[in-house]
């Protein structure tokens, strides 16, 4: 029997932001802040002719922090913000501490991948400023976003996320596609995968799935990648912002919404909890089958600190 198609994944540094812990988890110190990565990921898909298709998941923080005035005001909450290494630089030169852990450290001398020429696809998990990065660094890539994201860039998402917090020209219009709504029947249709109700087989061979993950903000998607016959990686984006929510040790934090009530970091807290529970169920169901699923959050400083060897030019 032929082996199932697989991809490789390498983490990329794409800036760092600071998260007030009480905004994300329950029972948190109201004064505690955590400097966390905003991770991107390079996914490489082998083609029949021996070439590789390069896909990047998320772009992290803009290198120059040139956001709209309303966005700039919001950035104050997340300071300090560090952009010493952005996604494009990580692709070109490799992740600094990763070079010490890979077998052939010499490969980090010179250009590894050219963002302008070597990236075929970019999937943006969602429209928030710390994931959209600097799209102009990738003039030949096709961008893909979750259903409703382009409308979100134009019109915002209600009082919590008004249009002024987004840029309607954030992504290149002629090179951006939007995944179809989950209710629509199309040739590229959402299908269940185990307990995950809506997934898209991106390459058509079972090596990479786009996972509809509602709750955080409209159009939020995750990726599930097969690295080996019995090993997967689940890139969870902002499904949650703390590994203790994946383990069930903590719950989603609530904070003052500025209008006399409470809100979470998610647009729909109930839906976000359902998405998180489905993720836990999926990981458990695969473990019962003897299949490992490594979950990686976009903003997990512990994972980044312990896994330099999984950063480009290393791989997971």
TrEMBL record:
Obligatory cofactor(s): Zn(2+)
GO molecular function, one term: hydrolase activity
InterPro entries the record matches: MBL_superfamily_lactonases (IPR051013), Metallo-B-lactamas (IPR001279), RibonucZ/Hydroxyglut_hydro (IPR036866)
Keyword annotations of the record: Hydrolase, Metal-binding, Zinc
Keyword Transit peptide: no
Keyword match Aminoacyl-tRNA synthetase: no
Domain Metallo-beta-lactamase: 37-299
SMART domains tied to this protein: Lactamase_B
PANTHER family named in the record: 102 KBASES UNSTABLE REGION: FROM 1 TO 119443 (PTHR42978:SF2), QUORUM-QUENCHING LACTONASE YTNP-RELATED-RELATED (PTHR42978)
Entry similarity comment: Belongs to the metallo-beta-lactamase superfamily.
Protein name: Predicted protein
């Amino acid at each position: 029997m032929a082996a199932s198609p697989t991809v490789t994944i390498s983490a990329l540094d794409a800036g760092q932001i600071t998260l007030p812990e009480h905004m994300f988890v329950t029972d948190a110190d109201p004064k505690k802040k955590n400097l966390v990565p905003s991770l991107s990921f390079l996914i490489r898909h082998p083609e029949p002719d021996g070439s590789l298709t390069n896909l990047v998941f998320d772009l992290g923080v803009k290198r120059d922090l040139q956001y709209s005035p309303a966005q700039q005001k919001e950035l104050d909450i997340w300071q300090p913000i560090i952009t010493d290494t952005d996604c494009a630089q990580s692709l070109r030169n490799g992740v600094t501490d990763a070079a010490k852990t890979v077998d052939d450290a010499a490969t980090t001398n010179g250009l590894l991948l050219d963002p302008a020429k070597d990236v075929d696809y970019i999937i943006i998990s969602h429209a928030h400023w710390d994931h959209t990065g600097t799209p102009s660094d990738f003039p030949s890539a096709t961008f893909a976003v979750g259903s409703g994201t382009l409308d979100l860039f134009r019109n915002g998402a209600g009082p919590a996320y008004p249009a002024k917090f987004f840029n309607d020209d954030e992504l290149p219009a002629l090179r951006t596609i939007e995944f179809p709504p989950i209710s629509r029947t199309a040739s590229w249709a959402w299908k269940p995968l185990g307990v995950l109700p809506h997934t898209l087989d991106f390459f058509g061979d079972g090596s990479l799935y786009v996972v509809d993950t509602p709750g955080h903000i409209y159009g939020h998607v995750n990726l599930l990648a097969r690295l080996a016959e019995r090993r997967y990686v689940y890139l969870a984006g902002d499904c949650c912002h703390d590994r203790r929510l994946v383990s069930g040790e903590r719950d989603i934090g609530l904070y003052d919404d500025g209008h006399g009530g409470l809100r979470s970091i998610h647009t729909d807290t109930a839906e976000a909890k359902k998405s998180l529970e489905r993720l836990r169920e999926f990981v458990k169901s695969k473990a019962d089958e003897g299949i490992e699923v490594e979950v990686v959050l976009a903003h997990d400083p512990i994972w980044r600190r312990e896994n330099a060897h999984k950063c480009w030019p290393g791989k997971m």
